[in-house]
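Pair request: fold both.
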Amino acid sequence: MPEIVAVPPQQLLERILTLEIVRVTERAAVSAARLRGHGNKIAADQAAVNAMRRELNNMPIDGTVVIGEGERDKAPMLFIGEKVGNSNGPKVDIAVDPLDGTTLCAKGMPGAIATMAMAEGGTLLNAPDVYMQKISIGPGYAEGVVDLDAPPAENIRRLAKAKGVRPSEITALVMDRPRHADIIAAVRSTGAAVRLISDGDVAGVIHTADPENSGVDIYISTGGAPEGVLAAAALRCIGGQMQCRLVLDTDEKRERAVRMGVTDPRMILSIEDMVKGDCLFAATGVTTGALVSGVKFRRHFIETETIVMRSVTGTVRIIRGQHRQLEKFHLA
């Protein structure tokens, strides 16, 4: 008879949680997808929040939201500090963006996702909902190839040298914002290409981890801090480098950061600073993009596609779901 190998309870639980977080992002994505193209990003985001919170509270965890929709006075649900789960499980930190790319969803444009990360309790950066400077590249490079404080043109030249190509063969992904005009001009001055995105910088950072398929070598932008921590969780699972800095440009923001344990407002944060322990990451497509396909409403079932990762194993799975108990997706 084949030998039966017992799986330690902690490992079994971790495997279960891998599937459980997929259910969370699936439900959020389906709820948001019902409002694709309706022009109301607030309603789409709220639908995703409601669905995600409902599913999180069914999970066998003692969870705390450390990256959420904002501080408690600004977010009625999934606010920073909110407790989630049924308390019958491990203590974990939760980072969520129920709808990354709210405008993309509202306009029916590609790339909107529902995403979350889960890590051992006390290991995710507890960051205020402020802007964050970000630069990221994929795996396989020596540490320090790029530097958040270096001029964009210098970073392009450094990366091209490390990759063994001309700067003209490098593509930088940048959020299309007026504040990035100087970055865009500097990158193009080297001969490198710039690809602009209107929203969705979690997926934007992830694209740097797979340049052969995404065509993206480097991400340079200032976006939301919550999205930065989520992206760091993904890169911790699949590899890459990322440097970030919180934009704490007012006394009020600096005070909020101090209350959350950020004592150095100028500190450059690495992936390991933002995600210290084992973590899980999942993203389900709301609208079809380069990372995952969007929700498809069939006559008798709903199709979803989710990418789920785990840092301790480096495993990446693409899960395509067909959901036939449609009544579960019609909850308010």
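--- second member of the pair ---
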Amino acid sequence: MLDWIAGALPTAALVAIELLLLLVALIVAPPGRRPSSALAWILLIVVLPLIGLALFALIGSPKLPKARRDKQRTMNERIEERARSVEHVTDTHGAPPWLAPIARLNREMGALPLIDGNEATLVPHFEEQLAGLIEAIDGAERTVHVEFYIISFDPTTRPFFAALERAVGRGVAVRVLVDHLGSFKYPGFRRMKQELTRIGADWRLMLPVQPLRGRYQRPDLRNHRKLLVADGRVAFVGSMNVIDPSYETAGNRRRGLRWRDLMARVEGPIVQEVEAIFATDWFSETDELPGSTTVDAVADDEDPVTLLAQIAPSGPAFETENNLALFNSLIYAAERRISITSPYFVPDESLLGAILTAARRGVAVELFVGEIGDQFFVFHAQHSYYQELLQAGVRIYEYRAPTILHAKHLSVDDLVSVVGSSNMDIRSFQLDLELMMLVSGRSFSDQLKAVEDEYRSSSKEITLRSWQGRGRFHAFVDGIARLTSAVQ
């Protein structure tokens, strides 16, 4: 009898440990998470306890520290106070009736209003984008505010830094924000810091992971925004980073890889909203306000040439998933056509449902993605959604290699568009600070449609039959990658 008890003790101890792990997982994983994400964490902790607990301790919190969120609320209140004089735009320039409630939703979540009197030009190619940034810097007389996920000093970006140096030399206040871990891995990171210091720019790392200096948060919470503002007069927003389009690796150059992005150059009151986003991020990193966050200038709303526009910020500094709400709202509002471009397309259940529902109710839906990707698990996770999308009638186009399509935008009914930094994946919804610009106006939509037409001519369309013929191993890897995407 004693021998039986002694033999059963190890088994009982293992069962007790597993039950304890399950109890711990049930307590810590579900709060604030979707059921699918919580279940993924619970399974990971129970099945692989050492790895699961270590990962949860490292990346378990999907929000920035409370102090950072408090700063976001402070800036939102400041912006809201100064924007109270801006009325909600309801029906101008032929805007669809469903735009007003979506704009109100954006304002409720992100504090910034839909405003009139803007001009915007799309800049679809890197050489033009870099030249446009340099031109704006060279035209600045007072301030240049730069904020990018990645900034690298390399032969391609050297003229950009030379423009910043010229600006500093003529007395312009140059402030630069660059994401710490986003830029850290590139060879030009150290040289970038040295060059910014040498030329006299005031620069800061965004969301630095420096625990020895008391600066730490979940390391994969990043600031993914890309913007530049000169004199509060002209701004650029979009998806590009200030780095050579090959992203500086020998392997990329050997394969001839080049990233393709989309930027928008804007003028008018909307520039103040972009400036407000920079001011918020600068305040969050420095406790200093770089200048005005006023959003109160509205041009003639009877001018049919100007555009309605609104900046929609999102990220782990907010309590809600602002960009996801914006995407879902636009897709459900669509009546005729939806065009989506997202290099990393891993939708959550709500976004996938919105897209499938739109296609099934007769909306023409197209999705542009890349034929190749630079992130293995994300690339295969997005593949796991293609069959459902194709069966619902979504047309999927893969932009041909060796170009990696990196632009992020959405257009609805050729009337309303959003362009910016946010992908349609869980990372952009929950973990990254993002910026999207909502625009209503046929002139801008026509520009974006021309870009989409160019993508289509450089892409191959995936058919349901060809996709079902892919190898079983490919499908297996896709399914595994889809499961890993839930651990957020």
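Observation on the second member. The first helix runs from residue 2 to 28.
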